[in-house]
Structures are given as C-alpha cells and as structure tokens.
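Hey all, quick one. A colleague (J.T.) asked me to put the zinc ion job into the tracker so the inputs and the structure tokens live in one place instead of scattered across chat threads. No bug as far as I know, just bookkeeping. Sequence used:
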Amino acid sequence: MPRKRKLYKILTPEPRSKFIKVRCPTCKNEQIVFSHATYPATCLMCGTKLVEPTGGKAKILAEIVRILE
Ligand SMILES: [Zn+2]
C-alpha cells in the first residue's frame, strides 16, 4: 500500500510567528494574542493594552501564560 507523504500542509505563512495566551494584569482575564501582531491588542474585558506592535515581533505587555505552538 503506497504511503501518503504529503499529509502536512503549512497552516500559516510565517512559521516563526505564534499565538500566545496572556493574562491581563488588570482584570486577570486570559485571552490569546498573536506574537507578531501589527496592531495593538487590548483586553476584551477591561480594555487594557496587552500587545504593542513594534517593527517586527510585537511587545507583550501582559503576563504570558503559555505559548501555543
Ligand atoms: Zn483586562
């Protein structure tokens, strides 16, 4: 039986970018942000800025809970 080798497809155009689960320092709400965000991300609960975009990798202003691969 022939093996299917091309099973895995590239899901994202930038493999080094990641999604990060962060905790809001103000209200402790946890949400997922993009590590290479090009726009500021704010807390959905209280509006605290969680991610600030820089030239390349975004600056995470919140507490990082875990990094999602
Ligand atoms: Zn918050």
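Adding what we noticed when we looked at it: The chain has one domain: 19-68. The CA atoms of residues 14 and 32 lie 18 Å apart.
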